[in-house]
């Protein structure tokens, strides 16, 4: 059962309670709603990198900052499929494709639709993050077999304009509406460590937990500071605040997957164990996120073995395809 009428006061009280009580309640709800010791694993691939017209102050891909990132045009669909096969073989159940666009242009649609069809045919769950979508684009992605669309609120409504000026908080809510109305699953979360206050983290959680339907997937990123961006030297957030954000998200949205997302590279094994205790049950695997390094597969396998965790099996039915045969 979902509650969408949370008040900020209630969320603040949950967030600020003694840490052990917060973790205990989050883990209790986690076990009520999910298979214990099981983590959903996704793999990310950047299908178009850099030269983005938006001005998100945290991002290596914005054309406005000198982040020294090498831009790359749209990569070939065949290359995406090879990467997806590799991800599947290494135990990933979802393949998430991201593009540094404000929004996909109409001329990009045949490209992304073909990609969705082919990745889906491998028996993987599909996810895309391409910027803003209109209703028709969301519907066509759904028809092609897309499962999830990622579009983050990023931070609280109040702090938002300190971070992004080229699209509004309401633009983001409109895209989430189109995604939901098209019947796609929603992946939406945010970033902590942007220099925001605790009230802003509570504000972000409030916005997510009071959406008409909770996002099925909630990534909680920790800023990966990028040289050349305005947030390059922002003070690092205490990990306990990140974990409080995750645990509160778990309590507010008990049936959503909560993803320990960007920034995991900088966490120790014991920090990650705490995040899983707090109800995080999804990660990105692989050496790279979109443009920044991530804990590689070897490290994650060792961590899973140490903690007795296992990767969740894909939920989509596996279709025997020629590509499957190639992979095997
Ligand atoms: N361009 C698309 C958009 O912004 O909607 C999709 C890709 S964008 C990179 C997806 C999300 O990644 C952002 O909304 C942000 O939450 C997260 N992100 C980007 N750069 C980050 C960084 N340096 N540290 C942590 N999270 C980051
Ligand atoms: C999300 O919330 N985190 C992922 C995914 N959605 C697309 C992206 C993280 C990007 C981290 C910075 C980078 O690698 O460029
Ligand atoms: Fe562009 Fe997305 Fe980066 Fe913002 S977060 S600059 S929209 S790639």
From TrEMBL:
Q: What is its EC number?
A: 2.8.1.6
Q: Which GO terms describe its molecular function?
A: 2 iron, 2 sulfur cluster binding; 4 iron, 4 sulfur cluster binding; biotin synthase activity; iron ion binding
Record keywords = 2Fe-2S, 4Fe-4S, Biotin biosynthesis, Iron, Iron-sulfur, Metal-binding, S-adenosyl-L-methionine, Transferase
Q: In which pathway does it act?
A: Cofactor biosynthesis; biotin biosynthesis; biotin from 7,8-diaminononanoate: step 2/2
Segments forming a coiled coil: none
Cofactor binding note from Swiss-Prot or TrEMBL? Binds 1 [2Fe-2S] cluster. The cluster is coordinated with 3 cysteines and 1 arginine. Binds 1 [4Fe-4S] cluster. The cluster is coordinated with 3 cysteines and an exchangeable S-adenosyl-L-methionine.
Identify the residues that bind [4Fe-4S] cluster: 52, 56, 59
* Family per record: Belongs to the radical SAM superfamily. Biotin synthase family.
State the protein's name: Biotin synthase
Encoding gene per record: bioB
């Amino acid at each position: 059962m979902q509650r969408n009428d949370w008040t900020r006061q209630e969320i603040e009280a949950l967030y600020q309670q003694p840490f052990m009580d917060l973790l205990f309640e989050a883990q209790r709800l986690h076990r009520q709603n999910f298979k214990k010791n099981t983590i959903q694993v996704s793999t990310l691939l950047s299908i178009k990198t850099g030269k983005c017209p938006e001005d998100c102050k945290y991002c290596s891909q914005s054309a406005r900052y000198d982040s020294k990132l090498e831009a790359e045009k749209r990569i070939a669909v065949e290359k995406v499929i090879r990467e997806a096969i590799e991800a599947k073989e290494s135990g990933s159940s979802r393949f998430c494709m991201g593009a540094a666009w404000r929004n996909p242009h109409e001329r990009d649609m045949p490209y992304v639709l073909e990609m969705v069809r082919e990745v889906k045919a491998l028996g993987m769950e599909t996810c895309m993050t391409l910027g803003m979508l209109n209703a028709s684009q969301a519907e066509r992605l759904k028809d092609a077999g897309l499962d999830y669309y990622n579009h983050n609120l990023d931070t609280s409504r109040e702090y938002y304009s300190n971070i992004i000026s080229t699209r509004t908080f309401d633009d983001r809510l409109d895209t989430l509406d189109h995604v939901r109305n098209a019947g796609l699953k929603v992946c939406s979360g945010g970033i902590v460590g942007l220099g925001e206050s605790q009230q802003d983290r509570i504000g972000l959680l409030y916005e997510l937990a009071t959406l008409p339907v909770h996002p099925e997937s909630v990534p909680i990123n920790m800023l990966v500071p990028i040289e050349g961006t305005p947030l390059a030297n922002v003070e690092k957030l205490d990990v306990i605040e990140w974990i409080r954000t995750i645990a509160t998200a778990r309590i507010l949205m008990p049936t959503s997957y909560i993803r320990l997302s960007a920034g995991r590279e900088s966490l120790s094994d014991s920090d990650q164990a705490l995040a899983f205790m707090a109800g995080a049950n999804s990660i990105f695997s692989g050496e790279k996120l979109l443009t920044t390094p991530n804990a590689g597969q070897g490290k994650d396998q060792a961590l899973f073995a140490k903690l007795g965790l296992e990767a969740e099996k894909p939920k989509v039915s596996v279709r025997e395809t020629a590509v499957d045969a190639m992979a095997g």
